[in-house]
Amino acid sequence: MKIMGLDVGSKTIGVAVSDALGWTAQGIETVKINEAAGQFGFKRIIEIAEEHDVSKIVIGLPKNMNNSLGPRAEASQRYGDMLGRRIDAEIVYWDERLSTMAAERVLLEADMSRGKRKKVIDKMAAVMILQGYLDSNTK
């Protein structure tokens, strides 16, 4: 069974999936959503989970630097609650402070153009969230 990582935003969700052994995370895609209009992309997320035989979903929790939960973290938790009612997989949250900034740094170091970075940043952040979770469980 594999583990899925999600970087939940208000307009997109970055998706990553682990290998079967739970050692590495690979970016799958960026799912477009519209939080304001109540369009959350559940159908596509569930399709990906089924395609990859996912048993656990790790959702990035963007905590504030003082460890408190702000509006985006609360939105991620609401998303996880709604997804959990629609899918037979364990939902866990992973502190993702600075994951998007770290993903941006990796893409800048790869000399990727701004336009290309914008297309893959959420997927890369999902990879970093999932890889952090996987690494924490192998120690």
From TrEMBL:
The keyword DNA-binding does not apply. SMART domains: YqgFc. It comes from the Bacteria. Its EC number is 3.1.-.-. Residues 1-103 form the YqgF/RNase H-like domain. Keywords: Cytoplasm, Hydrolase, Nuclease, Ribosome biogenesis. InterPro entries: RNaseH-like_sf, YqgF, YqgF/RNaseH-like_dom, YqgF/RNaseH-like_dom_sf. It is found in: Cytoplasm. SUPFAM superfamilies: Ribonuclease H-like. It holds the Pfam family RuvX. Could be a nuclease involved in processing of the 5'-end of pre-16S rRNA. HAMAP family: Nuclease_YqgF (MF_00651). Belongs to the YqgF HJR family. This is Putative pre-16S rRNA nuclease. It comes from Jeotgalibacillus terrae. The gene is ruvX.
